[in-house]
Amino acid sequence: xxxxxxxxLLDLTAENAPLLPxxxxxxxxxxxxxxxxxxxxxxxxxxxVAAYLGVKHAxxxxxxxxxxxxxxxxxxxxxxxEVVTSPFSFFATAGCIARLGxxxxxxxxxxxxxxxxxxxxxxxxxEHTRAIMPVHLYGQPADMSALRSISEAFAVPIVEDAAQAVxxxxxxxxxxxxxxxxxxxxYPTKNLGAFGDGGLVTTNxxxxxxxxxxxxxxxxxxxxxxxxxxxNFRLDGLQGAVLRVKLPHVTKWTDARRKNAGLYDLLFLxxxxxxxxxSTPKKVEEGHVYNQxxxxxxxxxRLKQHLVDxxxxxxxxxxxxxxxxxCFASLGYGVGSFPESERAANEVLALPIHPALTQDQLERVVxxxxxxxxxxxx
Length: 378
Description:
The radius of gyration is 21 Å and the shape is globular. Helix 10 (about 250-270) runs parallel beside helix 13. The protein folds into two domains: about 15-250, Aspartate Aminotransferase, domain 2; about 250-375, Aspartate Aminotransferase, domain 1 (Alpha-Beta Complex), CATH 3.90.1150. It starts with 11 loop residues before the first helix and ends in a 5-residue tail after the last helix. It is about 40% helix and about 10% strand. By secondary structure, the chain is an alpha/beta fold. The protein has helices spanning about 10-15, 20-35, 40-55, 65-75, 90-100, 120-125, 145-155, 205-215, 235-245, 250-270, 300-310, 340-345, 360-375, and strands at about 55-60, 80-85, 105, 130-135, 160, 170, 175, 180-185, 200-205, 295, 350. The model has no long low-confidence stretch (mean pLDDT about 95). Strand 2 (about 80-85), helix 5 (about 90-100) and strand 3 (about 105) form a beta-alpha-beta unit. The chain contains 13 helices and eleven strands.
């Protein structure tokens, strides 16, 4: 097995290589117009991705991080405000809140979905709460039915962190249109990835959409005239062109990810694993898009090293919850504040799930995990 070919966690070459001729043509369109910031390619992409996501407005921005930041700026969130969110997510979720001078108020996760525990959100609200930010982690929609009920009862808007969930569907509708605003990421490793950073804000609210459009160009409707203080949150024309080429393939890629997840589920059921040694992800929502396929085990770090030694890509998303990050020490949380998030951080491991995987590769991943958990590995 030492000579076996590597199984990468991601395979961007397999995804991008077949599209390069079309992408080069798209680049030529941008070069011909010299429209390198925003421009026609971004405008066309915004229309096309809005239709794909089933939302009224889609506004291209510079990154997924900036998508969340400008979405909260559009709501007027700032110093003294609070935003309720998850401590088990990528840093940008809470980092954007803090950058605006607001306070992240964490609520623990549901251990089955890794998403915000909606039953605990109500108790975290205060007179200073200005938004609830659920994270559709790993591509599975959060409990939006319960969260929308809370949002409506307390008149607190929802900002969806949909960075990992492009194309995901909840029973209530498509992710990105289930709150006041949503932020998506087009980082190259996402299910729809650019050739660099890129992001998207979505909304069904005309006024909020106009605010986002103004805020992404330094707060000015007219060049050099600034009604508000915004930022430089513009999407590059080249990224818009790449994303236009890749967007029609997302459904096919998502179907492949779901097929691979189903094969993993079946293979793990057939593998003779010790009872309770490994948990596979639970698909609570049929619209899960599997940006990650995440298993959990108490012996995670040793299993990770076992897989790395056998050239099988894997990664921990995320090894330290946000409430325990040094930069958030002033919030006053400590070890034990959010036990489900802390347990998940010690146990989760993402396995390869990208569309180019073969069944033989999936079988090898499962076999190596089974061998380790049964104590047969040498």
